[in-house]
Amino acid sequence: MRLDSVRLSHYRNYESLELSFSEKTNVLIGENAQGKTNLLEAIYVLALAKSHRTTHDKELIQWDAEAARVEGRVHKRRGDHSQEITISSRGKKAKLNHLEQRRLSDYVGALNIVLFAPEDLHIVKGSPQIRRRFLDMEIGQVSPVYLHELSQYLKVLKQRNALLKQLSMKGGDETFLDVLTEQMITLAVKIVQRRHHFIAQLEKWARPIHEGISRGQEKLVLIYRSDTFSNDLLDVEGMTASYTQKFGKIKENEIRRGVTLFGPHRDDFEMEVNGRNVQTYGSQGQQRTAALSLKLAEIELIHEEVGEYPLLLLDDVLSELDDHRQTHLLDTMQQKVQTILTTTSVDGIAHETIKQAKLFHVKQGAVILEETSYKEIVGEKTDE
Ligand SMILES: Nc1ncnc2c1ncn2[C@@H]1O[C@H](COP(=O)(O)OP(=O)(O)OP(=O)(O)O)[C@@H](O)[C@H]1O
Ligand SMILES: [Mg+2]
């Protein structure tokens, strides 16, 4: 699939902007603080109805404006469509082909995106919360029903925590707690199963990629971690039984502490390189390779699940990678995915993918399409 064009209105530092993209590689060049990341973020929001940088949607609206809007024209094998997201103080509105979607889970997935940014290193070395967010966002892209189940789960969890708190302070009848526990378990099983499946798929693709980037030196393994289950996937009955047993055992403890102590909202996944946890023992370079492998694996996973390649957004990552990893990444892009990348300069990047790219200059919330070629910019001599 590809994004043919976008239109931004009052989005961060963009008053209004219209752009058409090349179906291959697009490079956004600009100095710091000009709006490169803002533009990538807008595309991310268009696809996922959420920013990767903030959980406060209000920040996306241009200062002093009422509402921000991002529109896009998307080409897929089955046909073209338009999509649109509007953010105002009243909330979010999402439209597909001008039709408002009541549930965001009906909207997300129309455009698939893989974003790779320097902060993705935190997926490897950051807190479990960051990894859960990664899982939730990425699974949601390929199976929208997951987002629906997740929001149901979080709703029940909230209710259950409120009740536990009340019981811890004042005591009372526990019948309703048992009802909520049962509802929560049913949803938890679905969520954990989907996460297991996703992790297994991701590992299938990430392992050979990681081996390639590390020149055959490193074997990457992904492990889903839950207090209730091991990594071998149990069936629905088995999982339900384990949860039921677990919650039966800790019920008194939960009531005393006034909070839910187990469940997918506390799970995590681990990355091992050559048998050692890369989060704890990996070097900076190994952690970066692991993060890159995960992202490149996602491209393949989405292709497998959706039948088309996603759009790849790269924020300032080329300069962070050594030559070998840079080449690996650029080779992948060149072959199959539409890419939009940001950089402060294309100097020193001699790869064909960049040489043939469409260049955009970003300056103070405006974009000037650069007609001059890469060769003129970097002053390379041509034989023509
Ligand atoms: N809601 C907003 N309204 C108006 N301007 C905003 C808003 N949010 C952020 N900005 C401005 O957008 C500017 C550009 O941000 P952006 O992160 O896109 O820069 P960048 O080109 O990616 O820079 P860098 O190379 O440093 O990463 C910021 O300096 C900030 O002042
Ligand atoms: Mg930036």
TrEMBL record:
Write down the CDD domains for this protein, in alphabetical order.
ABC_RecF
Give residue ranges for domain RecF/RecN/SMC N-terminal: 3-364
Q: Which UniProt keywords apply?
A: ATP-binding, Cytoplasm, DNA damage, DNA repair, DNA replication, DNA-binding, Nucleotide-binding, SOS response
Is Ribonucleoprotein included in the keywords of this UniProt record? no
Amino-acid biosynthesis recorded as keyword: no
- Cellular compartment(s): Cytoplasm
User: Which Pfam family would be a valid example here?
Assistant: SMC_N
Q: Which SUPFAM superfamilies match?
A: P-loop containing nucleoside triphosphate hydrolases
Residues the entry annotates as binding ATP: 30-37
**What InterPro entries does this protein map onto?**
DNA-binding_RecF, DNA-binding_RecF_CS, P-loop_NTPase, RecF/RecN/SMC_N, RecF_2
Q: Which HAMAP family match?
A: RecF
Its biological purpose: The RecF protein is involved in DNA metabolism; it is required for DNA replication and normal SOS inducibility. RecF binds preferentially to single-stranded, linear DNA. It also seems to bind ATP.
Family that this chain belongs to:
Belongs to the RecF family.
- Please identify the protein, giving its name as recorded: DNA replication and repair protein RecF
The uppermost taxa in this organism's lineage are: Bacteria, Bacillati, Bacillota, Bacilli, Bacillales
Q: Which gene encodes it?
A: recF
